[in-house]
Specification:
This protein has two domains: 168 residues, no CATH class; 88 residues, Alpha Horseshoe (Serine Threonine Protein Phosphatase 5, Tetratricopeptide repeat), CATH 1.25.40.10. It is α+β, with helices and mostly antiparallel strands. 60% of the residues lie in helices and 8% in strands. The strands form two sheets. It has a four-stranded antiparallel β-sheet with strand order 3-4-5-6.
């Protein structure tokens, strides 16, 4: 992706995440477009979601689970779980494998199109899907199964041994938080792999979010500087100074001036 395309995808993402309601499918596909190491056809992927919804034998939870996770074989990727491609919705649609959150977004967005009222549940350690028609019915998209609250608790305890389960873990997660969680997953992956280019692309989207902490800007500037994008690092520090003000603004502007001086 060239600089103009990257700027366009970032600006579009910044606009989309301020939407009310936030279009979850579009936000997730723009993450793919900006952060992925592949060409993303956003509109083609949305068309594919339309096609999946139209193919439901009936607009119900059972019909959706049957189509996606049995007939079409969408499933959790267990061999290379931390491959960043598992976090890109367009590639999940193409390969039919992913991690819990992307498979959950798939189910939510197909359900929305078909009139099946689903929502995300950011249970610690494992993302689930809830159904507005029954507060004791959940989809474990990674496993391709329908479970109840007791099953969700059992799943949590198998992944978090020794940690007490709380029913609040099954509360609805807003789309904005789903987007944040997806970006944080990618940030963790690229941090551990020491891929500063990919990390910078994720941080460029994280700083678009309303509740972005100041430290995200500092991390972004550091990642950009390491990639030789000194001018972009300086611009983001100046943007942070304008956004947050206060006692940090002077330090941020001073750091930006030091970066600009290196370009003279």
């Amino acid at each position: 992706m060239d600089a103009d395309d990257a700027r366009s995808s970032r600006e579009r993402f910044a606009h989309v995440v301020r939407g009310d309601p936030l279009p979850l499918d579009l936000a997730c596909l723009l993450i793919s477009s900006h952060c992925g190491q592949h060409d993303t056809d956003v509109e083609a992927a949305r068309d594919r979601l339309d096609e999946l919804a139209a193919a439901l034998p009936e607009p119900s939870l059972d019909g959706l689970v049957g189509l996606l996770f049995h007939d079409l074989g969408f499933a959790g990727e267990r061999e290379v779980y931390y491959d960043p491609d598992n976090s890109y919705l367009d590639l999940v649609l193409e390969r039919r494998t992913g991690i819990p959150i992307t498979l959950s977004v798939l189910a939510i967005e197909v359900g929305r199109r078909a009139g099946v009222p689903l929502f995300g549940i950011g249970m610690p350690g494992h993302f689930l899907v809830g159904h507005r028609g029954d507060d004791d019915v959940f989809i474990d998209a990674f496993g391709g199964t329908v479970i109840d609250a007791a099953g969700a608790q059992e799943l949590f305890e198998s992944m978090q041994p020794g940690v007490a389960f709380e029913r609040s873990y099954l509360a609805e997660t807003p789309p904005q938080v789903i987007v944040l969680r997806m970006l944080n997953n990618l940030r963790m992956i690229h941090h551990h792999s020491r891929n500063s280019t990919a990390l910078a692309s994720v941080l460029e989207l994280l700083v678009c979010l309303d509740d972005c902490p100041l430290d995200e800007y500092r991390q972004l500037a550091t990642a950009l500087e390491r990639r030789g994008r000194v001018d972009d690092a300086a611009r983001y520090l100046e943007q942070a100074a304008d956004r947050y003000g206060g006692t940090d603004a002077d330090q941020l502007r001073a750091a930006a001036r030091r970066l600009w001086a290196r370009l003279n």
